[in-house]
Amino acid sequence: MKMNLTWSKGLFSSRYQIYSNGKQLGNLTDKPLSRTTKGMFNGKEYLFRNSGFFKQHTEIIDCSDNKVIGRIDYNSWRSKATITVNGRRFNWKYDNLWSTRWSISDSNGTSVKFTSSTTKGHIDADTDNGLLILYGLFIKNYYLQVAFIVILVAVIIPAIG
Questions:
Q1: CA-CA distance, 92 to 73, in Å (whole number)?
Q2: CA-angle at 59, arms to 104 and 139, nearest 5°
Q3: What is the reported pLDDT for 124?
Q4: pTM (2 d.p.)
Q5: Are 30 and 15 in contact (CB under 8 A)?
Q6: What total of structural domains would you count in the chain?
Q7: d(C-alpha 83, C-alpha 77), whole Å
Q8: What DSSP state is assigned to residue 106?
Q9: Could you report the per-residue pLDDT of 135-145, keeping only the tens digit for each?
């Protein structure tokens, strides 16, 4: 089933809201300075828990039974990720140099494409798997946070020295 969705996020907000024809279907809420993010799509809730320091990954937990159902592994260049859930493997990647387009795909032809501006975007999915929608926004947000920390460190360290 094809889905055409929109998403929005306030400029300084930590909450993505996902809509279909004006009706909210889900959200992704990041807690600042926390290693967890909560996501909800069509009434199903998930928790994304970051682990590791140099080789970070994220566990995906189904909140209905508190079981780990998947994992996200990030590449060192912060431009791709691999999602493994219930034995299926998906690839997340940026589709343009400006990081305003990204996608998730698998070997079966499943595809979800995302576009963004500063505070909103569009999602075209050839599946109704809401978890894939959440993955796409979560990884994008994760990479934005990593970039912010790198920039912050690059500014603070020279100022201290």
A1: 10
A2: 35
A3: 97
A4: 0.91
A5: yes
A6: 1
A7: 16
A8: -
A9: 999 999 988 88
